[in-house]
Amino acid sequence: MFGDRDFDALILRTFIIDGEVFIRIIKDSKNPYGISFKLIDSLCIDFEKNRPSSNYENAIVAGIEIDKDYRPVRYYYKEGDTDNYATGQTEIIPADQIIHIYKKEFIGQVRGFSEICASIDSLKQLDDYAIAELFAAKIAACQNVFYERTGNTAGDWMDQEEGEDKGEFLSAMSPGESSIVPKGYTVKSISPNHPNTNFSGFVKAIVKRIASSVGVSYNRLAHDYEAVNYSSLREASIDEAKTYSNIQQFFVDNWKTFEYELFLKSYLMNFDTSLKPSKLKDYLNYNFICRKDGLFDPAKEIIAVERRLKLGLSNPIIELESMGYDPEEVVQGWVRWNELLKTHNITFKDDGESLPLDAVNQFNEESSHPEDE
Length: 373
Description:
Layout: H1 4-18, E1 20-27, E2 35-40, E3 59-61, E4 64-66, E5 72-78, E6 90-94, E7 98-102, H2 120-140, E8 144-149, E9 185-190, H3 198-214, H4 218-222, H5 230-270, H6 280-283, H7 298-310, H8 316-322, H9 327-343, E10 346-348, E11 354-356, H10 357-368
Antiparallel strand pairs: 1-2, 1-7, 3-4, 4-5, 5-6, 8-9, 10-11
Helix pairs in contact: 2-3
């Protein structure tokens, strides 16, 4: 079971990773709305199921049957378990039971693909290089000892007579240890230098490519702020805000709108039959307001808003929604605030200092009727 916020987060995470989301609509569900939703793993839509179109049959592309106008007709769902995908029985699901979310990049596209695809090769290169450097660093952490013949030895080392001069080969070392090597051998130490100085530069270049492909700034993706200034960070944040804003609006258009309308219609049809159908239009007159974060200079942003309002270039509703606020909730909040002040007998002067209403009324009376000196 998921709450709505957790379910939305899972949908968004699946979309970013897989590039598409399949949501099954389950009607007659045992909840107050009579409807529920179930996420289907994209790998369980039988991508091996393909068929060309003919005069008698629709085409099937990667598990989705489409008509001549590329509209989905049926989805071929193949059950699987946690270890193996699409290994069970095939279930054919009508298109009206599936919400398929994906970005359409070209005409005739039937399945979605993740924007991370552009970074797969770079991610693999980074992973391989990091593993290679890790092994090299482990080797470099050890003092490798090699024995070399000097030409002064006669015969094999094992044929030498027992005694102190025989010495021994070193297979392990410990701090403060000293040993005698066999006669006729000299010791050479090899110390590889890893990680080398190119490691950080390579990682930085790869992460920059990845950041560019997914539409975020390198500094935020790598959490690297050592070489940034106010202007560059602000410019990167503005570009990122556009990316996130596009994702939010896409999410609203392709999921939240359908979710709300399906919940509403199901509830009105099954649980609140007293409501007139004509009222449905009023309930469908809604607007999802996406969250917005401020930038780096709130004071200047407020001045800009004030100037736009004075020049008539905007209005409070546009400005509130652009900041991610619901105008209705803002007004209701002011009503509640004023009622709370009256309840506690508090008012505010122009300078924002709070005073009891009695003290303010007394001040006003004294100001309007000054005593004679």
